[in-house]
Specification:
32% helix; 12 strands; alpha+beta; HIT family, subunit A
């Protein structure tokens, strides 16, 4: 029988060899088709047993006739509630760092015994490790994680860095929506910087309800009309979007310790790129910003994250399923739930803070 040290040495060797094979395959897949990166990562992890194909969610549509801003999606996903307990081995073989944080690479190696692997993705001024989500919200749901244990708020590098990182991630992974949830704004692990990489719906027009309700911005950012949450949106080449939205987000972030929010970025959904843009050619990027107040909202609103703000409500608890069965998820109820996540001060900020940007 192997002692602990010899067992660790064997596991580390197996992990290193497996990781090298994984990196070679993902490098090849990304060079071939950047938009298929998350699908390739998740397929690898289905093959090794880390991802369970039985963890499927069901989606249904709820809408008010003739009103694009009042169209929503309900996702029935009871597995999602289990994410707070993690998906790995509860007993460490070596001491865990940072309290056992599920997103720290040394902990992932130990907790998952080499089954979960991250692919390094470098963007302008930043590096991320892209992992599959063990409790997915969409098919091929991945998480882009900071290699260092830094907090989820804007204090690391400030809001300009956060805005830049999410835009560059979206640019690097077309066909997805990249989302950042701030503290008290849907972040399950506020201690470690990460972005959700969500696949588009596989049916219908492949757009989320918020996208359907969004007008095409012409001069800088606009606020989505008729939506239950005040959301600023800008569209254009990546540098144009950064110029339009960075000052708006930065002023909010510097307003006080209570200032938080959500960001969602994507390559314009009608652009169906199969590979990276040719040199000198850039995709159009769409960036959404939702200002939130960490303390001026009901505690239940802390669970409202980017996917809900995109218009897809996750039904995960027993109470949620009971409400669904009784017909409680009407457009009116969903609008009230989303509106509760944003204080009047947040709405007023977007109403009084115009920006200059893409034309």
């Amino acid at each position: 029988m192997l002692d602990d040290q010899r067992l660790l040495a064997v596991l580390d060797r197996v992990h290193d060899v497996t990781e090298q094979l994984f990196l070679i395959e993902m490098d090849t897949e990304y060079a071939r088709a950047p938009r298929e990166l998350c699908a390739s990562i998740c397929q690898w992890h289905r093959a090794n047993g880390f991802l369970d194909d039985d963890r499927r969610s069901r989606r249904r549509h709820v809408s008010a006739p003739g009103s694009p801003a009042r169209h929503f999606v309900l996702q029935v996903n009871p597995e999602r509630e289990k994410r707070h307990g993690g998906a790995g081995h509860p007993t460490p073989l070596r001491p865990w760092v940072h309290g056992g944080c599920f997103l720290c690479a040394p902990n992932i190696v130990d907790q998952q015994r080499g089954r979960e692997l991250g692919w390094p993705l470098a963007t302008e001024g930043a590096r991320h490790l892209v992992y599959p989500s063990p409790f997915p919200l969409t098919d091929n749901h991945c998480i882009a994680v900071s290699p260092s244990h830094t907090p989820q708020g804007w204090d690391v590098g400030g809001a300009p860095r956060l805005v830049r990182d999410i835009v560059r991630l979206a640019e690097a992974m077309p066909g997805t929506i990249v989302a950042w949830n701030g503290p008290a704004s849907g972040a399950t692990l506020p201690c470690h910087r990460h972005f959700h990489v969500l696949a588009r719906p596989t049916s219908g027009d492949r757009m989320y309800p918020l996208e359907r309700a969004t007008p095409a911005p012409k001069n800088g950012s606009v606020v989505v009309p008729g939506y239950p949450v005040a959301i600023a949106v800008a569209r254009g080449r990546p540098d144009e979007v950064l110029a339009a939205m960075t000052p708006l987000v930065t002023r909010w972030a510097e307003a006080g310790e209570w200032a938080t929010g959500n960001l969602m970025a994507t390559v314009a959904p009608e652009q169906t790129q199969k590979s990276a843009p040719a040199r000198g050619s850039e995709p159009e990027v769409v960036l959404y910003f939702v200002p939130r107040h960490a303390t001026d909202q009901p505690e239940s609103a802390h669970a409202i994250a980017a996917l809900e703000l995109l218009g897809e409500i996750v039904i995960q608890t027993e109470a949620d399923r009971t409400r669904l069965a009784s017909g409680g998820y009407t457009p009116e109820h969903i609008e009230e739930t989303l509106a509760a996540a944003q204080s009047p001060a947040c709405r007023m900020y977007l109403a009084t803070k115009p920006t200059n940007g893409p034309r």
